[in-house]
Amino acid sequence: MSELRACPFCGGEVKLYREPYQGGQQAGINPIGLLCPGCKTTHLFDAHESQVMLKKHWNTRPIEDSLRARVAELEGSLARATEAAYDYDSKRAALGKIGGE
Ligand SMILES: [Zn+2]
């Protein structure tokens, strides 16, 4: 089930499952859900929801997507700043050698 995004809590692979029938449910329609074997997180969906909609709902995470984009942007800034700092240090060291430090 690789078309499902990983568990947002532990990064594990989630699996599709059906709840066993319990009284009060419409006969023959067991709720469908996703289970993460790693952290035991479950996410139950409406029994009438199709697997396509279930996957769409599970994979739609606008806040997580926004945060991941921001983290990537900040990691890029950190990498550029780190490179600039190393470059500054190496130029400063070279100037020190010229200046007799
Ligand atoms: Zn998990």
Written overview of the protein:
A hairpin with a 6-residue loop joins strand 2 and strand 3. The protein folds into two domains: 1-60, no CATH class; 61-101. With 101 residues, the protein is an alpha+beta fold. The protein has helices at 51-59, 62-99; strands at residues 15-18, 32-35, 42-45. Zinc ion (ZN) binds at residues 7, 9-10, 12, 36, 38-39, 41. The site of zinc ion has 8 residues, from loops.
Residue ranges: pLDDT <50 for 5 or more in a row? none
The distinct ligands, each listed once, are: zinc ion
Main β-sheet: number of strands, strand sense, barrel status?
3 strands, antiparallel
From the N-terminal CA to the C-terminal CA, the straight-line distance is 62 Å
The 3D shape can be described as: rod-shaped
Q: Brief overview, please?
A:
Helix content is 47%, strand content 12%.
